[in-house]
Design a protein that fits this description.
homodimer, alpha/beta, 5-stranded mixed beta sheet, about 20% strand, elongated
Chain lengths: ~425, ~425
């Protein structure tokens, strides 16, 4: 009998992770070699709790709708399996659940940690007597997985940030003569500046915004920063700043943790943007505005990159194809053939080479003064935001699908730890 | 000889104020009864400084592009003319500049203060011996002008906030089991809750987000708010909050001014969202995320409401038509004929009735518990966000026009005060 696929979404969700789910399910439905796709309710937690969503209960239309629906339709989680030494019971539980539900394929859709888990499961399942084909599927707005040209989810955040920077930049430009002179947009990227760098794509002339980008990779120096802001206002009339939430001092302290206290002396959640604005106001007295994009940026399916949507779907489709070809412990990756025009196809990487490797942004992508991106960065980033892929609208709002998410009947006793 | 039109953009810009400029210029170009459209560089400041942009130097294509370009293409300003008693010289200067440049029409595109200025100029010009036809053109994301059904600029902010709330809501829903349980989106509206109310349009079922809306109109009570958040998390699993920047305590203190201090004891720019998150974390310990939309919301031409764009263009077109019909001291308004389907046309209001009247949100638009919107609010708001009107894209980014903004040669000596 054809084995079922277990599919789980892991970690922070994106505008296109459901497009990957769509690719997995639509491709699996076309094959007689695989059974059902069972999705973990809230990710891997669903496997541990034996809460498996039967995607065969969803209509073809609902599954097609996943392609244009942001966030994780089955629920995701921030739950990292401990090492085998620390908690072998969790791994045994996974195998038990897989065995009980005829699951022969484990598809884990996530970032670096998830690829590591998928790798471990692939190694263990054989010794535990229930061999599982493990396929990792890349997903992360952080764009930090190795080998793959980019990570599905990143292109859409990049597009959102570039579009928003251009738009807010026009706003400040038209107000600057008598009002706001500085605007700060805070974006995600705790460890790497990929997302902040994407803001640089908005710049289409030497005086156009953004004028300053703050990367986690470049130690923040208040004096140089304030001088750059003033020089920009003096020259251009205003200054637009894109700041990574991971911007930090040379000693590793995050600007966002600058020690704000409320009236009662409690530490207040920071935010890089208000911290920067405070500095600028104190030093230069400019009127400032600031924005923190937070979840809006990674949920913004309404302005997703068509390239990103296509790639997200393609890695889902490839996961099924790889499994059917008998591949194991691999992850589909995006291979860049050329940049202009952008040509890519799907390749594969062994999970062992993906797990625990973080792809950092090359220093050559950051301008010499540390406040901008280089032509090389632009060449890399620009193709990733190409194309629009608008969702359908009703009554002025995007029509995102909501699945039934019907659970398979449980067969095992409850598991204690999850 | 046909008199010229002076057109100025005033106050905070919007995603569609340039669509109004497009309506004015395209309509004026078709008529032989009017001369050129001269635009104030940075709004009314441009008139005082005799910095007049000659829009006849722009191509038809560039002017057409204004329809899809956000912010103020000629620059705007926050500059309110003093009263006649305080500064008659400013009014005299306006008349001098208008006379020197054969300007017979004054079009002022802005909110309440601007309509008041247009009204005053219309009264003065006759006594000063250079009669000017004054037409106010409505614009404000605050939606607080009287008589008109809505204000161009508001519908697009409303759409942005509704779309963003829906998208971020899906994100939180998929993470809530093991991670973020509360998300706060801070939106504009210092005096009225129109924009916050628009977030309520995202809600399409009784359990769907947003679960809490904070309006400036409803005194903030921390205890009731925290209880509502907990009840929502207990029932739905997560809680999405849309908070107006104008949210305030019963004594009028803004939540945003809650007295945050940095490490040096300086008062820190607040933000309602981080303040609320701080409260929620302290009381319930939930993991929270927050976003401040700020300029992004009013600059977001990429997701503008088609209805709003159409209305913005229509009031610009009507301004010229009114002027040619010999009307004076009036403002084109949007008249709602019916809500479902939305039918509207253009009417007129005397500036004397528009100036200094603020349209507040009716209490009947806010639910009894003060945390949501009613069916009446929905009926009013929903038509205003209908339709998408996407700008053209190149290389993954919206192609917004940049005008030449060539100034007319000055004819007068410099004016001291501006």
């Amino acid at each position: 009998m054809a084995k079922n696929i277990f599919y789980a979404q892991s970690g922070g969700v994106t505008a296109v992770i459901n497009a990957t789910a769509c690719g997995v399910i639509e491709t699996a439905r076309k094959s007689r070699q695989v059974g059902k796709v069972l999705a973990g309710k809230n990710g891997i937690i669903g496997a541990l709790r034996e809460e498996l969503i039967d995607t065969s209960k969803e209509s073809a239309k609902a599954i097609a709708g996943l392609r244009h629906t942001p966030s994780g339709a089955f629920g995701s989680c921030r739950y990292k399996l401990k090492s085998l030494e620390e908690n072998a019971a969790e791994y045994r539980r996974l195998i038990d659940v897989f065995r009980a539900h005829d699951i022969g394929y484990f598809f884990y859709n996530g970032g670096g940690d998830s690829q590591d888990t998928a790798h471990k499961v692939s190694q263990l399942s054989t010794t535990m007597g229930h061999p599982i084909t493990c396929i990792g599927i890349p997903k992360t707005v952080d764009n930090d997985l190795p080998i793959t040209d980019t990570c599905p989810g990143f292109g859409s955040v990049a597009k959102y940030v570039a579009v928003s920077t251009r738009e807010a930049g026009l706003d400040v430009a038209s107000m600057a003569e008598s009002s706001t002179k500085v605007f700060v947009l805070e974006v995600m990227g705790r460890h790497a500046g990929w997302i902040a760098a994407a803001g640089g794509l908005a710049r289409d002339s030497s005086s156009a915004p953004p004028h300053v980008i703050l990367f986690p990779e470049i130690a923040f120096e208040e004096k140089a920063f304030l001088a750059k802001v003033k020089a920009t206002v003096d020259k251009v009339g205003y200054c637009v700043i894109v700041a990574s939430e991971g911007a930090q001092y040379a000693d590793g302290r995050f600007l966002a943790d600058a020690g704000m206290k409320d009236a009662f002396g409690h530490t207040q959640l920071g935010g890089v943007a208000p911290t920067l604005v405070d500095m600028i106001k104190a030093e230069h007295g400019y009127k400032c505005h600031w924005s923190v994009a937070d979840y809006l940026q990674r949920a913004a399916r309404h302005i997703a990159s068509a390239t990103d949507v296509e790639q997200a779907y393609a890695v889902g489709k490839a996961a099924v194809a790889f499994a059917l070809e008998g591949k194991n412990a691999v992850m589909p990756v995006i291979q860049r053939k050329r940049s202009k025009p952008y040509r890519w196809d799907i390749g594969e990487a062994p999970l062992g080479k993906v797990a625990n490797v973080e792809k950092m942004m090359p220093r050559s992508f950051i301008s010499k003064d540390g406040f901008g991106i280089t032509a090389r960065a632009r060449e890399y980033l620009s193709p990733l935001i190409q194309g629009e892929d608008y969702p359908p609208y009703r009554d002025g709002l995007p029509q995102y699908v909501r699945l039934k998410n019907q659970l398979v009947r449980k067969k095992l006793p409850a598991f204690k730890s999850a």
